[in-house]
Amino acid sequence: MSGLIGINFEDVMQIPAQVSKHLPNILPKLCKYHLKIMPNYLKIQCINLVMNHFFKEAITDGELDFLENKTFQINVDDIHYSTTITLKNQKLIALNHHDTADVILKSSFNPLILLISRKEDPDTLFFNRALAIEGNTALVLEIKNWLDSLDFDLLPKPMQKALIDYSKMI
Fold it and tell me: Any idea which architecture 18-169 has in CATH?
């Protein structure tokens, strides 16, 4: 597709092979740095906006009611980032600080990308010790089933392509 000035953006976005082989080591570090300098309130606003946009239909249909007044924490160890999510009044909310959660999902950046891009399923990542889920057993099963059922097509096409391309590099 050509841009306004005649530039083919797909050609511009091609990553040279010598760079792409290092990207799985570089990208988590870049994310870690940017998350470190980003104000916490901005991270929370972004998470809330994105979650409620992409999961609007699931929230409306009651598919996430299992999170009502429960807490689900996601820890991404290698980038030193953690967020806790709950559902209140038909809205997913990232909490500012939450010491304990009903369920904790632990992983590192690249396995989560593989999960989101559907290149790996949660069970495979769990058995390969790339993903750990602990806490309230019933809620763990609800979250695992929800992760299994996530529709990759909810994401915009350019994001899908970026995730698929990156997951091939991992």
Answer: 2-Layer Sandwich (3.30)
